[in-house]
Amino acid sequence: MQELPKMQEMLNAALAQASQECGTLLGQELEFRESACREVTRDAYFKGMENASFVVGIDSQEDYQGVFCLVLTLRDAIVLSGTLLGVPASRIMEKKKLAIIEPDDVDAFSEIANQVTGSFNAVFKRTLPRKSHLKQLLPKKFIPQQDPIEAAEPVADGDYYLLQAQLLLAGKELEQLDILIPLPLAKLFDLQERLKQELQGVNIEEAPVVQSPEKSTQIVSEPMSVLILDDNATQRQQFQDMLAASGVSPVSAALDADLKKLLSQKGLKAVLVGVTNANDQELSVCLKITANLKGLSIPIIMCAREWTRSAVLKALKYGAGDIIMTPCSSDELSSKMLKLVNAA
């Protein structure tokens, strides 16, 4: 097998970040532990599959175009989704044994897969020298010996780079998360050093038209704008002070303010929303914000004093990129904000 050390290192970093962030979402320690990698063909992989699984496509865009996928057994998806939904352990084990998958399980698993995709997106963006963006596609169920392997189903035909990671939840081994990357795309991900050199060469050639140092400094140092929406004036001011201290330019307003006007301001990079109770009525402000953004990729962070797993799931479903439990530290707020802005 051809060695792809740079890509494998990037995947390991992405799995490490996904472990931490998915563990926070689930409320339990989660670990993806790399176990093996090899080259496979589409047909050999799916014909050798023994368990019904979810196949989650991830559309790689910008300068790294292609579709790779995450594959997880249905039974492990039931365990993870049940954990997120707060289903009793005995019921989770029963559903796992009988392979009972319900609509709520599918929704919850999609949110977990979305968090994994977000973690991968953040790592890929800061690692790859050219523009990259990952977009999760809808999970598909694949049942061996029953579903066809043809045309572009369950994935496109061809050779793939397969990385298998052992999955552990609260220290207990589940099965494996498989990452299937088309070989040409995997090789492109691995060409990081060469691409960096090419980019450096382009920068040197374009040196005569680079802006003056004064203008460049102004552009780099220009603070990003963050909109703070909160009916609690005291908490709103605290958010303002914390963000201002980290170099962010905050704009604040109450939840019933003119969203259309506030969201159209130039340079807006994120929206921070503070609510009293993480209930359906207050979380629905996410839907209003998303509707007014009209497709713009501006992340939303929801803040509340208490979060249940169902409230977290609903916030993510309504469009939130992350949640924070208040009161929070300045470091936590700024790090989450920057992570989402960089991944957008």
What does the model show?
- This protein is of the alpha/beta class and 344 residues long.
- It folds into 2 domains: 5-194, CheC-like (Chemotaxis protein chec, 3-Layer(aba) Sandwich), CATH 3.40.1550; 224-343, Rossmann fold.
- Helices cover 47% and strands 25% of the residues.
- The protein contains 14 helices and 12 strands.
- The chain has helices at 5-26, 42-47, 74-85, 89-98, 103-127, 183-190, 192-205, 213-221, 233-245, 259-263, 280-283, 285-293, 309-318, 330-343; strands spanning 30-41, 53-62, 66-73, 132-136, 140-142, 159-169, 172-182, 225-230, 249-253, 268-274, 300-304, 322-325.
- The strands form 2 sheets. Strands 1, 2, 3, 4, 5, 6 and 7 form a 7-stranded antiparallel sheet that branches. A 5-stranded parallel sheet has the order 9-8-10-11-12, sandwiched between helices.
- β8, α9 and β9 (249-253) form a beta-alpha-beta unit.
- α1 (5-26) packs across α5 (103-127), α1 crosses α6 and α3 packs antiparallel against α4.
- The longest helix has 25 residues, at 103-127.
- It starts with a helix and ends with a helix.
